[in-house]
Amino acid sequence: MSVALTDQDKLTLRTAAYGAVSLLAAAGAAGSPHKVATDGSLALASATGPVGHVLAEKPKGVNLDGKSVAAIADQVLPALTAAMSLLRKQDPAEADNFRGTVVVALEAAARTHQGEPSPPMAEMTRKIIKALDGADGADGAAVPQAGAGQDRPDLREAIETFVAAGFAGIQMRVHDERGEWVGSAGVRKLGEAAKPSPNGLFWVGSTTKTFVATLVLQLVADGTIKLDTPVADHLPELGLDKRITVRMLLQHTSGLYNYTGELDPEGTFVPGIPAVGKEWVDNRFHSYRPEELVRFALSKPARFEPGADQSYSNSNYTLAVLLIEKVTGRSYDEEMQRRILRPLGLRDTLVPGDSPEIPGPHAHGYYRYEDAGEWKVVDVSRQNLSLLVGAGDMISSTRDLHMFFSALLGGRLLPEPLLAAMRKPHGMLGYGLGLFVQDLGPDCGGRTIVHHNGGAPGGYGALMISTPDGSMTLTAGLTTGDADVDPAQEFPKALDRLIKDVFCGGQVG
């Protein structure tokens, strides 16, 4: 999509962005307001895309003539909402770019303040973020954006299909040529009537792998590591097969045993560390260390010779985390924040470490398991996913997953050759470097999608699906409840309908 802005529109954007920084500076006036404003404005000047060109004109035409914080707020906060609204009507991705730019500027400004931000600064930051998000709508109905401002019955029915199939709840966000649609269905918590918040947080499971692959490929782009270098060159202490390369980890062609379990030659699942059933429920707050998980995998026979086949293995991505930490000298969490989360303004996304908490509004997820012949259901909203370090441990929201995926596929995080390698399918899984690539076939006009969905060991699932260029995205969070159904059986059918509704114009073949 392209963005056509009038002079008044550009003034609105500049007033909103530079005004937000000025407002934060005014709120923290007891500190160093001039330096707060300067550092925030410098961060705004680093913006890219159409928004960057507008903000590069500096605060031209901006007249923040309020003589008090309240007067400035009366001018700036509505401008923030208006800026987001006018950008969403033309290009939702550029609206996210603007939002991320302002959030980064606020962080830069706040860092000027010594120690923790003062209560007035913290409260003003909250108000600015609320104003940025004011154009999004807050209920489960469609967001009246670039389409005709009407609901999308096809999408509404599609998410209801998940609830009918036995899921407790779903929250979903779609960005396409009609604009943005946000909705939810089901319940936030069993026994209550409230729907899940469409802006809630959730465990994203294996969607984490795309974030980790992006980190690794950024290190390749920097020249810190090479795709076809043996991993053992960087981690000699693990005794790895020297034929296993960085590319093989990201592509699931290393042959490493999957530490959460594997199928035996007869097709029977053989558990690894406790990751399913009662054993996982009883151990779901246990803390693991990445090296512990990798060494467990290495204690088992390899599935095949490195590069000879392809098999999905969480071990590959936990090993990738050890590689990231070794070559950067920083923790996985620090590197994720530094390279991806802060630059994109992904406020809802985090690497939780050992914490079992979802630190914000969220729907409750439940796990149904058998114990001594009796079926039981337990709330697993709290779980320690150090069990899946780098392979499935992150928390996010539909908004943040959209912002990340559209930025990644739009070329904002990786140079084109590495992005092309990421999107090139390989082997029987059709898996590139941290992404599945899927041809939807002639019934969908030959359209291709890229995706990495995920699921926590229990209670939660995530969808992150897009066209290869990031121009059309679908992101969602799902929760399981107490229904006597197998999500693994029902999920594919509901997902198939959803993909056809979003990416194929509802064609069912």
Automatic annotation (TrEMBL):
Record-annotated Beta-lactamase-related domain positions: 156-476
Domain of life: Bacteria
Organism: Streptomyces capitiformicae
A Pfam family reported for this protein in Swiss-Prot or TrEMBL: Beta-lactamase
Name the record gives this protein: Beta-lactamase-related domain-containing protein
Gene3D superfamilies membership: DD-peptidase/beta-lactamase superfamily
Phylogenetic lineage: Bacteria, Bacillati, Actinomycetota, Actinomycetes, Kitasatosporales
Classification via InterPro entries: AmpC-like, Beta-lactam-related, Beta-lactam/transpept-like
